[in-house]
Design goal:
Helix content: 10-25%
Radius of gyration: 26 Å
CATH class of the largest domain: Mainly Beta
Strand order of the largest sheet: 5-4-1-2-3-7-6
Oligomer: single chain
Amino acid sequence: MRILLMVALLVPALWGHAALPGNLADGQPLPSLAPMLEQVTPTVVNIATYTTVQVRNPLLEDPFFRRFFNVPDQQRYRRTQSAGSGVVVDARRGFIVTNNHVVERADEISITLADGRVLSAELIGTDPRVDLAVLKVAPESLVEIEFADSGSVRVGDFVVAIGNPFGLNQTVTSGIVSALGRSGLGIEGYEDFIQTDASINPGNSGGALVDLAGRLVGINTAILAPAGGNVGIGFAIPSNIVQAIMRQLIDHGEVRRGFLGLAVQGLNPELAEAFGVDRREGVVVVEVEPDSAAERAGLRPGDIIVQLGERVIRKATDFDGQAAVIFIGAKVPIEVVRDGRTRKMTLDIRDEPLEKVTGERIDRRLIGTVLQNFRNQNDPTQGSGVLVTEVSETSTAWQFGLRPGDIIVASNRRGIRNLEDLREGARLSDEQLLLRVYRSGQYGYIAIR
């Protein structure tokens, strides 16, 4: 305490000789982010969610215990609360973008604005595969953010993260863009993240990553924290993807993502030599689905895709990121290299993506099954997934327990809503296909090897 006191007494003297100048040598004011932040921080909001969960006591699940102690057989519930951030993207209509994981399973959502007002929010739609959600509030004196073109962002650009970490409203941290196109993290179905060293902590999820002009570069979504805390590795969903998904959710309440009908892998030196090409960038088509947009366009295995839509394809993450924003009804130009020549084609994304297929079109371990998309409007406990309509009794799937009538709701621990989701989940593991199924009012797991 004595040492601290002495330092405190010395500080004014030090300031008297070494105070920071109010202006630079040429009379210009010191650089500051404050003017930009005064315009942007009102667009970032706090999101509080409330969820009712069932409290389960293992002792009460034993019928003998309940009968012996005359314990009433009644369910107990408790209400939980969590917090995150969001960004006002349309002030006139009251739309707010946040992460799906901030609001999923919420019974009630409330928004606290920068001026202290608290508004009730309606969930418009979610896209779990990209981890985005759109909310709507009463459009009363809101301030919206301006979008930046995330395609023009470069490694080394300065960025600022704004959110509500640990419940601390309107917290601002700064850093740079550390990397682009980050994927393979196992966080989402489609991964094409902007990596930044601007501190992103719990509660920042759904907040804004902005450039020095105050434009939205991305939506903060995750951190890499091997020691349980922030180590300067944060990830944001690029603003171009946010805009595309946001429009789908606002217009349709869901994302009507198109099925391209092809599988690809990154081009490496060995493949380039095998195909006799000099280039080292692009992705190689390894499979084309029958009667798909890719087959109708004329794509073949061995084609090297170098451009999809307006995006140049240098690696597999470029392809995946662009595929995430291709929707039903689109006509997408695609450029490939075949036999040393560049060819231009068009993918016609029709409203016919995998409604009912044989299992082999999804995964080799599902050979002998017939599957179709499933949505039960009358029983919300079953929701959506993939319905098993037929299973051959000589198939591997039958031997491991899959039966007609099963509804597949998860694949390799990733929730699914349709056949395309099932395909993507199956690719997560070559060793086994772990399915969570709904059968006769109960959920269970089936592991197929």
